[in-house]
Amino acid sequence: MRRFSQAISEGDGISLIVPVEDAESARLGEQQGAEGILIARRVPDLRQGTTLPILWGGPESSPEAALGAGADACLLAVQAVGDGRRLVELHAQALGLGLECVLDVRDDEELELALEHVDPEIFLLSGRGAEADEEELERVLDLLPDVPAGKLAIAELSVRGREEVAALERAGIDAVIVAADSVTELLGGVPPGV
Predict the structure, then answer these.
(1) In this structure, what are the phi and psi dihedrals at residue 111, rounded to the nearest 5 degrees?
(2) Cβ(49)–Cβ(26) under 8 Å?
(3) pTM here?
(4) Fewest C-beta atoms under 10 Å: which of 18, 83, 104, 131?
(5) Quick one: pLDDT band at residue 36, thresholds 50, 70, 90?
(6) Residue-range domain boundaries for the chain
């Protein structure tokens, strides 16, 4: 198994994670410099298309589904899980299967619940559900100070350009989820090996 946490914490700068629907998109994302793959369903031949670690973010927040899809890490949405006891069970199950866990939090209450019950290594700070007068970037950056030192933070928001990626990096975000075809542009350079 590949270590998702290692892929997004190594190297210089912020890491980019790309959601993919097929092995070709994964290959393209890797060629352009992405450091992780996000899938929401099983993708045939994905392991043949990429060497990047894979994060399962499917509608079924289940470690078994993640393992069955060939993922290295499992996304657990605190909102979907509902309570601390169930969160503890799913987190322990994922770790028992050799998967890393990424806890998806949208607000301070969800972040507090995650820290109180499982103390995860990786958080996904989501801009989803931002108030009408609040931007997704602002919501993510407001959550970041409450993530304990030494933990990894991934941002999930609609990135509008390199400037937002740079702002996330300056703030201390370790990775951001972006479209596969925009990796080179958002990294601000040419793909590695070109």
Answers:
(1) -65, -45
(2) yes
(3) 0.90
(4) 131
(5) very high
(6) 4-187
